[in-house]
Design a protein that fits this description.
The chain has 174 residues and is mostly beta strands. It has a single domain, classed as Lipocalin. The protein has one helix at residues 2-8; strands at residues 17-20, 29-32, 39-52, 61-63, 75-78, 83-94, 97-115, 118-126, 132-140, 143-157, 160-173. A hairpin with an 8-residue loop joins strand 1 and strand 2 (29-32).
């Protein structure tokens, strides 16, 4: 279960400013989104410190998305009202056997800073064990990135699937 905590504690979201329409238009909301944050971001990279060969095809990759379909359909949805939905899929390992697992979390996000075309976003949600998880993202263009310096990730060691520890970067694309 501790291994799952890490996997499910990998993401969150940042901020957006809302403005409302005039009184005669009370069912509509106009979003002031100059940073283009609202939207769905699909996981395109799960970067590990070294190359892994999870699928044991003899071709290792530093991006585990290229090694397994367990990460398919992982995404983060940043809503204009500063809420988020994180649909997370990952590999869990038990006795050298990997299986795909999934979870969905709801939370909030806020902008914590901007510099040129880069926006810093803080996302917060409750994980599967009801602990608060805060993730810091960097958005440049249509890409979000989040790095965890000390993370567990699936790896093959001596032809056995195990967890290794190191820096992991997740990259999402809108």
């Amino acid at each position: 279960m501790k291994k799952m905590k890490f996997l499910f504690g990998m993401l969150a979201i940042g901020g957006l400013v809302l403005t409302s329409c005039s009184d005669d238009d009370e069912n509509n909301v106009v979003v002031n989104d100059p940073n283009g944050i609202a939207g769905t971001y699909e996981l395109v990279e799960y970067r590990t410190p070294g190359e892994t060969d999870i699928d044991k095809d003899g071709t290792p990759h530093p991006n585990q998305v290229d090694e397994t379909d367990c990460y398919d359909e992982s995404n983060i949805v940043f809503n204009a009202d500063n809420t988020l939905t994180y649909n997370y899929r990952a590999i869990t390992i038990s006795e050298g056997i990997g299986t795909c697992a999934s979870a969905q979390f709801g939370g909030t996000w806020e902008i914590t800073g901007t510099s040129g075309n880069t926006v810093s976003i803080r996302a917060t949600y409750q994980n599967a064990t009801n602990q608060t998880v805060t993730l810091n993202f960097t958005k440049t263009g249509n890409r979000l990135s989040q790095t965890t310096l000390i993370a567990q990730y699936p790896n093959i060691v001596n032809n056995v699937l195990v967890y290794s520890t190191g820096s992991v970067t997740l990259i999402f694309e809108k």
